[in-house]
Predict the structure of DNA helicase RecQ.
Amino acid sequence: MLRRVFGYDAFRGEQAEIVDHLAQGRDALVLMPTGGGKSLCYQLPALLRTGVGIVVSPLIALMQDQVDALRQNGVAAAFLNSSLDWRAALDIEAAARRGELKLLYVAPERLVTERFLQLLDELAAGPGLALFAIDEAHCVSQWGHDFRPEYLQLSQLHERHPGVPRIALTATADNATREEMRERLGLGAARVFLSSFDRPNIRYTVVEKDNPRRQLLRFLDGHRGQAGIVYCLSRKKVEETADWLVQEGYAALPYHAGLPAETRSEHQRRFQREEGVVMVATIAFGMGIDKPDVRFVAHLDLPKSIEAYYQETGRAGRDGEPAEAWMAYGLQDIALQRARIDESESPPEIKRLEAQKLTALLAYCEAPRCRRMVLLDYFGEASSPCGNCDVCQNPPELFDGTVAAQKALSAAWRTGQRFGAGHLIDVLLGKATDKVARFGHDQLPTFGVGKDVDEHAWRGILRQLVAAGLLQPDLTEYGALKLTEAARPVLKGEQSVQLRRVGRPGKARKTTRAAPENLSPEELAVFEALRGWRSQKAREQGVPAYVILHDRTLRLLASLQPGDQDGLAGISGLGDAKLARYGDELIGVIRGATA
């Protein structure tokens, strides 16, 4: 079935075991990284079992793309969501009752309606229910940033149809969220399949903010013509950044919850279907984005947690090809996130949890060791240095920063814990500014004690002290840095502090675009001809190009250059339906490009 329908010769990771487990009628909770092949884990068992598989999916665009891809593979699939008019919805419901569908995608809001629950009862009595798949299952977590209240009602599925196997899937969840999913979805007895969270094809880089727009431009310079996402914290910043990138010659589009629904839909459609679009977005964009050739994800602001960061960066490189996760952050980011937690109306225990998660993210940003190891440690997975992050490729120098920390903490204390980093650095450097003189801070014993270090290095030291929990910015007092209880033993000399030596921000490494898989010039000509053919097909059918064929399949075709149907049959990604539909045309394109 895998070979015939999907065109693959082998399963990846635990796919085979998950498919077998579900096909036998058992429940599963699957935690698998983005791009790990989650959808196959429920699509294939639905084909193997009697009846229609019901897939709960939270995003209209994702449903559309998955259904398009299944139909390309010859699978009878459909979706029910608010994008359909009532006649189209009635036709799909009737087709399901007649047993003409193998997979039916539905939005959670529709699934919990009495009408759809009635349809499920009719299907159970008629053609049968093959399985229930709950995609993006972390949406059930009330404390997550993707929470969807309808997900809390999905336990009804099991209560009404206890004999139908269920599979809940997510790309990221810490232990607390995993347990919440199991409890709220009634999956206590389900087998948990936990894949490695490592995405070795993604290169992680974190830079300290120093004219972030200029830094972003340097980074993007190596990604011209490639698809990517730039995340910003506020709607205003999203729109300003998108406008600025357009002026800089990038095909950039804004996306946030404040835009009209039709604008959001159109921008998402363009991102999915056009080449080289850069989406500038808040976290409102991204969940369930199934675009395999996103080459970079950049953060201009600090996310709220490692889970959020992992999930957002995980939208890059789903095709397994090299991709980059780049982030710029500074003290102001930390202050904003701390204020967000303090000002929220969440209960105290949730605020504590969110503060801990932010601290873990800051530790990642300031880590003197491999970034991938820090990320995977957070998810409880042991690893070794990756060689594919900025820390591995340019290890920082560590030094005993106890005296520097004492000077900085003393400056904050003696100035009354009422000033931000800029003023404290002026005091440490002995700069007699008007503000320093007005408050009499040029008379303090700490005035000028930090002249051995420059302003840039002091900024890095203060940021590390905040990340280490010795100082805390207070946004209600314009980012004033205040000492925490943990600072006391450092000031008293009872505890030492290790710091990273902060260098001047260098020029960002430029990414060069290599020929795909080092194809020869002749093979590259075939590859480009195939890409042109694929673009034309995608336009004719109104689907994203990757739904027709993935880049990897095109590369194999360009490299092997099969001359007949038998040769095509061994190409990964070409199942029976695509062979029948496109086989002759593909052979014609290859012959034309090599003539």
